[in-house]
Amino acid sequence: MSDLEFLLFILPSVIALVLIFNNVIKKSKQNTLNLPPGNMGWPFIGETIGYLKPYSATTIGEFMEQHISRYGKIYKSNLFGGPTIVSADAGLNKFILQNEGRLFESSYPSSIGGILGKWSMLVLVGDMHRDMRIISLNFLSNARLKTHLLPEVEKQTLLVLSSWKDNSTFCAQDEAKKFTFNLMAKNIMSLDPGKPETEELKKEYITFMKGVVSAPLNFPGTAYRKALKSRSIILKFIEQKMEERIGKMGKGVENLDDDDLLGWVLKHSDLSKEQILDLVLSLLFAGHETSSVSIALAIYFLQGCPKAVQQLRAVNFEDYISDFLKVINETLRFGNVVRFLHRKAIKDVKYQGYDIPRGWKVLPVVAAVHLDPSHFDQPHHFNPWRWQSKNRARAKLPKGVEITGAQSTSGSPSSSTTGATMSNNYMPFGGGPRLCAGSELAKLEMAIFIHHLVLNFHWELADDTDQAFAFPFVDFPKGLSIKVHRHTL
């Protein structure tokens, strides 16, 4: 036997011994740590299948309920391909988010980066995430919300609602998605609703979205593979628009129109083409999906709370802002569009006696805190009035934002807002350095859309069994079918 043949013969055995040795070392190290209690589940897949099993969006699901009951609010598991600390503890969740970049960092599955792009704000960490976030925050500043985005939000709202016929039945979720897609397409790339190129982009985007929320199986015929193809088509579309803008820059950057995000980024940043493409795609995704689900949830919850609808129709301008902020807060608390966040420990961490080893995934489950009776009284009831305490910090719409159609007692619109209380344990937009850059726009969209909805329509569920489910993304599988009746106040 030659030396090469001998090497090839023993190599598999050597690799196996190394892997076994490493596994023994890891287990030995874990035995010296005070890890939270829990169950690591099956080899490789762990407990991921059980964790992702669909359940009612107004609950935390059977998996979480059983694990919290058995192990407490902090437990270990094996999820998304690795050892994981799951937190339903409000204190630990805040600790994780406030120590972003120091002890923890974003750690979404690689399939998310593959479909949203490596420059997506969702997957970026460190300085690059900070820079991208600053660009987004500048574009979504309070001044721009008032001068550019508010009129467009109202315009797109009225465009959708004007198409609703009296005594008609349709899927409210589809209408909410139509509204948010048209709004984002207009404000990101100045695309007009209903135009052929806008509708073609929407078609590809729908395919793209189905892949984002599907199993990451990159095989022919799968939703994920189709989404990757649609991603490529969407990026080519954005790149074409970008090249048209760059052509205009021959006359100088100062002459470039920066009313939309694409123009803003080209004029006010030095990002590469690839970075701009991923940023635009990720903001189209974030601005469309979460906002449309939030609006659908508000429609769903309000139809079961006629007192809240009646109050929104009857109050003056100042009280309207206050009352609607209560509805926004309660919708996001009860519906939990973003249910948990993906993080990992970048250093060995101790928390309340527990060890969180470096390299382990950490999942702060926001929904579990929002639905915890120790933090929110009767958490499984939709109760906007829980947010009216005068003893806590108040939530506000962006400074200077006004909503037309509601009258101030002084006879003119007021920019001041009194409002709903914010609990320290309320984190629908995350927290820390990764607090959602579009949170103010999302609240504005909800406020304007529901404002005009309650002023112009009564509505009821067309199917009493229709409800939101967590997959873990929140969705109405039946589309939230409603019957509307037009009225004029």
From TrEMBL:
Binding site for heme: C436
Segments traversing the membrane: 6-25
Cofactor(s), names only, from the UniProt record: heme
Gene3D superfamilies linked: Cytochrome P450
Keyword vocabulary terms for this entry: Brassinosteroid biosynthesis, Heme, Iron, Lipid biosynthesis, Lipid metabolism, Membrane, Metal-binding, Monooxygenase, Oxidoreductase, Steroid biosynthesis, Transmembrane, Transmembrane helix
One Gene Ontology biological process: sterol metabolic process
Membrane topology (UniProt): Single-pass membrane protein
An example Gene Ontology CC term for this record: membrane
SUPFAM superfamilies on file: Cytochrome P450
GO MF annotation list: heme binding; iron ion binding; monooxygenase activity; oxidoreductase activity, acting on paired donors, with incorporation or reduction of molecular oxygen
A Pfam family matched in the record: p450
Reactions catalysed according to its record: cholesterol + reduced [NADPH--hemoprotein reductase] + O2 = (22S)-22-hydroxycholesterol + oxidized [NADPH--hemoprotein reductase] + H2O + H(+)
InterPro entries: Cyt_P450 (IPR001128), Cyt_P450_CS (IPR017972), Cyt_P450_E_grp-I (IPR002401), Cyt_P450_sf (IPR036396)
Main location per the UniProt record: membrane
Compartment(s) where it occurs, according to its Swiss-Prot or TrEMBL record: Membrane
Domain of life from the UniProt record: Eukaryota
Family: Belongs to the cytochrome P450 family.
Protein name, as recorded: Cytochrome P450
Organism phylogeny: Eukaryota, Viridiplantae, Streptophyta, Embryophyta, Tracheophyta
